[in-house]
Specification:
The structure is a single chain. By secondary structure, this protein is mainly beta. The chain has a domain at 25-88. 5% of the residues lie in helices and 26% in strands. The protein contains one helix and six strands. Strand 1 (25-30) and strand 2 (33-40) form a beta hairpin.
């Protein structure tokens, strides 16, 4: 077993090859265009939101995704992670009464 290397504070050798991500934000290409996607942790979710994919509430302290079209900050929407993953496979939801025929 090799000995531990405890470096004094501020004296640790820096490696230039190591890339540390500065945020959990990424870009995704969808049918609608280029989306900016930010993954929120449970501690970052401080209030409930409504998911546009399933129209259900996202409770507080639940990890989820915030996504918006590039250049459209006002169009930010909070999605369940599973709903966002199935975004392109979703059909428009049609509201029907119980007795309405399904064509």
């Amino acid at each position: 077993m090799s000995p531990r290397r405890n470096y004094p504070k501020g004296k640790r050798p820096q490696s230039d090859e190591r890339e540390i991500p500065t945020s959990n934000q990424s870009f995704e290409e969808h049918d609608d265009g280029l989306y900016i996607v930010r993954k929120l942790t449970g501690s970052g979710a401080t209030k409930p939101y409504r998911c546009p994919g399933c129209d259900q509430m996202i409770p507080m302290a639940t990890p989820h995704i915030v996504a918006w079209l590039d250049g459209d900050e006002d169009g930010r929407r909070h999605w369940h992670s599973a709903c966002w993953a199935k975004k392109n496979k979703r059909r428009p939801n049609t509201e029907r009464t119980r007795n309405a025929p399904r064509y």
